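Translate sequence into structure tokens.
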Amino acid sequence: MPTLLYYPLVEPPKEVIHQALLYWDDFASVVPGDPEVYESAVSEELKDLEERGLYRPITLGTQYRQPLDAMPHLAVLIGRLRELAAGSPGPHISVLDAFLLHSKLGYCLEEEIVRLGLGRRLQGSHGRYDAGLVVSREVQLLLIGELAQQVAFTSDARAYTPYTDQCSAHETSLRPRAPGSGVAAWRVELGRLLPMPAPGTPISEILAFRDRYATERERLTGATQTMLSNLCRDWEHPADVLQRMRVELRQARDDYQSATRASRTAWVYRSVSVTVGVATAAVGALVAPDLGWVAGIAGSIGFNIATREVRPLHHARKEHPFSYLYQVDRELV
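Result follows.
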């Protein structure tokens, strides 16, 4: 399994941590490079999970901390920031309602944001303007969403899958980089396949379940990942993909549900959707399938056509050309 890469914040919500511990080998988020800022930004719970090998803090490397003209891979991002500044009502965006921690971005990128009037530096405890940047929500999502995609789809060391619980962050990160460059995509709903512990469940209880039912958990996540990978290759025939995986998915689901019933944990179902970009297919090339004939598993998985084009994932590793959206406030009944 690839590593779940949470964005746009450093600290994932409890529900995202729970899902990561159950359905992924480990999870990550982008953190400040400054050790002092890191210590205050990352909770003791995350540090404990890091010691267990379940959480990976990511600091942006030197390829994101150079002068702007030395970072061609960020040219599209910088261009979009400049377009945003050109369309803003004044020298500063009117509402600065979001925050970027000091050293989470490179200094040159921070300076460009300030120069464009898209943010301002906050003064720290020693009188220096090193506490971070206050920006608009739109700027925060644009920056962190783009950087999450960059890390996920260009990393050679590990495979990462972008994952967020915020619809606006999800849509921003998948927006095509240029007009006419987008492709069609499937939105696959997996919430009924992947039950979640009820809110308030202790981490210790989830870790105990993870260890005790490792076989059932790994079988379900492996089958789900295989289905999504097959959908990337055979995107025109989602029902056929599901039919070929029907027996494996049903057995994995049933075994996992038996494990959840045997536990003392209360379980709920929340919306978990995956966006799967499909090669170079244009909008209109996809046809919503009739899954009624795929007996035994169709009720657990839903296929919908994304309402907007997404960026083509030309540079994505084959293991993870997907992006996840977890909607904790959308319960499936």
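Note: Residues 314-320 have pLDDT under 50 and may be disordered.
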